[in-house]
Design a protein that fits this description.
252 residues, alpha/beta, Rossmann fold, five-stranded parallel beta sheet, two-stranded parallel ribbon, 10 helices, 7 strands, globular
Amino acid sequence: MGIVDGKRLLITGVLTDASLAFSVARLAQEEGAEVVLTGAGRGLRLTERTARKLPHPVEVLEFDVTSREQTDALRQRLTETWGRVDGALHAIGFAPEICLGEDFMAAEWSDVAVAMEISAYSLKTVAEVVAPALAAGRDVVSDRYVASSVAYQGYGRGLGADAVVAVNRFATDGLQPDLVVLITIDARVAVRRLGEDLDRIEQAGDAFQTAVVAAYSEMAAEDPARWLVVDGNGTIEEVAARVAAAVEGRLR
């Protein structure tokens, strides 16, 4: 019996079966959890197709984090269907192309605002959907949060950790995670897993990646009570088992 056996989980951000959110949904079902997925806009059909690859059928609900109507509708649907939610995975991220390239300093505030609203502030929206469950001591899980912004933008892009923390504190209204799981892998394994179809972050070069790794290591070392470091070498199942065991040990 797994730690999510019998739990009811809302999972956002499933687009393809290569996404982290899809793996979470699959493993959650295999561990006995009930799952509901969400999709938005043109990506909704893609989420629906990908959902068919899960071990068991799931309901896919429309959820644009910038739409108050869809937020309210999702909350009502979950209440009607389940009555309670035991956990939620926030795996939503987006930024206009100008924010991601080498010329990211050319981005206007309107571009940055879109990235912040969808990628960062949207966690607050997801939390609002399951607010009654949160008040009852349930959990919300995000596949990345402020620490990722600090590592990639503050250190990797050289924008300054303090500045990135300040912006994210405003965007999230100071919401902090109770637990951060850092999965580490050997550099050669990372290269092999990435393959040849790399995004801009993955093409940023060795110096950038080294700075990001160092940032994560530094943050974990400075706050061991909040951070869990887990070995990410091995199969998906092996890593998932390590994460589950480590988290379960902290929750006891």
